[in-house]
Design a protein that fits this description.
Blueprint (H helix, E strand, L loop, with lengths): L2 H15 L4 E5 L1 H4 L8 E6 L6 H15 L3 E5 L5 H10 L1 E5 L2 H32 L6
Parallel strand pairs: 2-3
Antiparallel strand pairs: 1-2, 1-4
Helix pairs in contact: 1-3, 4-5
């Protein structure tokens, strides 16, 4: 089974279960660095809310269909750093609302910039000390 077909299966299954506004591929698959033992990293935004358990079951169903592990991330529940990584490095597989996509990306980029400003003194102190621990 080729990689394109794998993604089509994943997109169809996630569409049936969640009907997200945005679906992205990220990680090694998006970067073109998949190996035989690589998992498939997928993130979605919007659509039907799933509990952590329901999301786990969907990821397991996808893993069974695709023959490899699947990490499935709800962007609404991910940290700002994780959201930024996914949105900046991931590839869009499906987008139902381009305005929503742009607003989401703008919001995440702003939150990430603010986070970096707020943690700048801490990171600078760690660099100066050469350790995260107080001397």
């Amino acid at each position: 089974m080729d990689a394109r077909l794998d993604l089509d299966i994943a997109v169809d299954e996630i569409e049936k279960a969640v009907s997200p506004d945005l679906l992205l591929l990220f990680g090694s698959a998006a970067a073109g660095r998949m190996r035989a033992d690589s998992d498939i990293d997928l993130a979605y935004y919007g659509g039907k809310p799933l509990s952590a358990y329901e999301r786990f079951l969907l990821a397991q169903k996808l893993a069974g269909r695709l023959g490899r592990e699947v990490d499935l991330v709800d962007l609404k529940e991910a940290s700002t750093v994780m959201q930024m990584q996914i949105l900046s490095e991931g590839h869009t597989l499906r987008c139902k609302d381009e305005d929503l996509d742009l607003r989401l990306r703008t919001q995440v980029y702003k939150m990430y910039a603010k986070l970096n400003e707020e943690r700048s003194p801490v990171l600078r102190s760690i660099r100066e000390r050469g350790s995260i621990y107080e001397a």
